[in-house]
């Protein structure tokens, strides 16, 4: 990384969320495991990608669905 100038670097990140990632939590006796059922069905997923360049947020993008390599590179 030291071979690049700071103004030439862009930090990118992608993240996503959907409503199937809820986890059941409840009180339980000490030493006993709590079990919760999940449907396993996927729902609509929202994804976001953006970059950080010279301390500024650039190219924020939100879209419906999952991100793959082609989408990230585009």
From TrEMBL:
The keyword Plastid does not apply. The keyword Heme does not apply. One of its GO terms (molecular function) is endonuclease activity. Pfam families: DDE_3 (PF13358). Residues 8-73 form the Tc1-like transposase DDE domain. Keywords: Endonuclease, Hydrolase, Nuclease. PANTHER family: TRANSPOSASE. This is DDE superendonuclease family protein.
